[in-house]
Amino acid sequence: MSEVLLRIDDLVTTYGKIEALRGVSLEVRQGSITCLLGPNGAGKTTLMFTAAGILRPQRGSIRLAGEEIAGRAPHAIVARGIALVPENRLVFPGMSVRENLQAGAYARTDGVEIERDMERLFERFPRLQERASQPAGTLSGGEQQMLAVARALMSRPKLLLMDEPSLGLAPLVVEEIFRIVRALHAEGVTIFLVEQNAHMALQIAEHFYLMEQGKVTFSGNPGSLAEDEVVRRAYLGSTA
Amino acid sequence: MDFAQNTLDGLTSGAAYALLAVGFTLIFGTLRRANLAYGACILFGVYIATWVAQRSDAGLATLALVAVAACVLAGAYVERLCFAPHRERRGNQVASGAGIAAMVASFALWMQFEEAATLLLPRHMYAFPALYEGAPLALGPLSLRVEAIVLFAATACLLAVLWLVLQRSRFGVAVRALIDDPLAAGLCGIPVARVFALVFALASAIGGIAGFLVVAAHGQVTPHLGMWATLKGMLAMMIGGLGSLPGAVLGGFLLGLLESHSQWYLGPQSRDLIAYLLLFTLLALRPGGLASWMTRWTSTRSAS
Q1: Residue A135 pairs with which residues in a beta bridge?
Q2: Do A75 and B303 lie within an 8 Å CB cutoff?
């Protein structure tokens, strides 16, 4: 067994009086693809935002390679090695593709290496290279998703968080995004993925968690629970 | 000939409006919040410079530096008190009325600065060392004030430098990222709070220069400067389109031209009426201001 890269313990995050996370504990192992499944409103995006520092937890701990990061500011968390590809991509629409990638490398100061990483990402995503000087707002949804992934990789993360990368994309584009996720995994990037598309997620995940109403209700390997049961609970919750 | 002379005058006041609008837009674009104390900071900076001028024989360059420094300090005070506590970064910790609270707080500081300035220099008007003492240049039938050329040239240089900084530097990438999407900027590792404080300082410095140029061009200072700067800056920003820097520049010049022409053809009392009429028409027909004609990417943003 490889060692644990991310360990979340008894995490509680609230919006005012509403508890969106009600004591979540989970772990992501070094080099793995771990998936988080669950119906809408289960708290998946809240968990991602809390891990990335956008939201401050009420209590609980988030450790990256042993170091406590809960409650730190987003830029400090990026500097420690977590990058989030947010839901709906959130590329900078008025900036060119190249400038989006430069923004992604903001925490780094090794100028030469940044250029080299950018060239490497352009080789991996030729469509982004073709559009390098175009405003990101003019890209298609799939291209924006690739840009969001590339932008996150520019920070050289130890852990890549992805929130619903297939959201709103055509099936062929979704296939392509998942091919990219697999390739990144093969290169040794640790990936923690939130996904509505349970069928897709179970194909690539080594380990998955099921979240319902702010709590982890199941944890296991694909195959440890019948797929139709996972799919049902991921979409509808166990009470349905 | 009247038309040409009015256009010349309009471009001159338009240059000052453009600077004020750019300062407003930098703050509004990065934070999506109006800083009502912006004009008051400029008033404060210029008053400190006037106070220094009364007590010493400091040259114009020194006075400009004093005005800018005092304006930046006043801006930092506003940022710490009104905007830093209400930043949106931790969405779940900020009360929903934070935007209003910040605006009202900045209004309170506006009053504070005006009081401080009039306590410092209580008379209704003070002389300020003039940019140029000589007679206007005559270009055939047109007269061109040398102060106007200085104001115009300084504005052009400042805007060019600002454009270069925003387009070419690492800091510029961070600022534009913040304007486009503050949430994603944080996720990229951009220290949002620090960049915002720097933007505030930059906007205050631009305001300080604008204030200095205006009072030095007129050779006098009155306590109305703060109100004037806030109104003209906001008006030009809204005409240009909230949050757009090219829009702010264009809005400033358009406002200046409109004012000088309507003052000549329709009389001085109609000047502000026409300016607000333009704003009203534009907001009714094109809520995005002039900028909505210039940028098309905003509409493709959510398409997939």
Answers
A1: A96
A2: no
The first and second tokens of residue A124, run together, are: 């991996």
Q: Which residue has the tokens 């998703």?
A: A145
Contacts of A73 in chain B (CB under 8 A): 89, 186, 191-193
Q: Among positive and negative, which fits the CA dihedral B1, B2, B8, B14?
A: negative
Distance CA B15, CA B232 (A): 11
**CA B223 from chain center: how many Å?**
17
Q: Is the pTM of this model over 0.90?
A: no
Distance CA A67, CA A7 (A): 10
Residue A49: list chain B partners with CB under 8 A: 91
From chain A, the residues in CB contact with B192 under 8 A are 73-75
Beta-bridged to residue A37, according to DSSP, are A210
ipTM of the complex: 0.91
* Dist. CA A106–CA B50, nearest whole Å: 41
Per-residue pLDDT tens digits for A116-144:
999 999 999 999 999 999 999 999 999 99
What is the four-CA torsion angle of A138, A144, A146, A149, rounded to 10 degrees? 130
Q: Where are the domains of chain B?
A: 2-303
Selecting from A75, A86, A168 the residue whose C-beta is nearest the C-beta of B189 gives A75
Cα dihedral sign, A66-A70-A75-A78: positive
- B2-303 topology per CATH: ABC transporter involved in vitamin B12 uptake, BtuC (1.10.3470)
Residue A9, φ and ψ in degrees, nearest 5: -130, 120
Q: Decide: B210 and B39 in contact? Cβ < 8 Å.
A: no
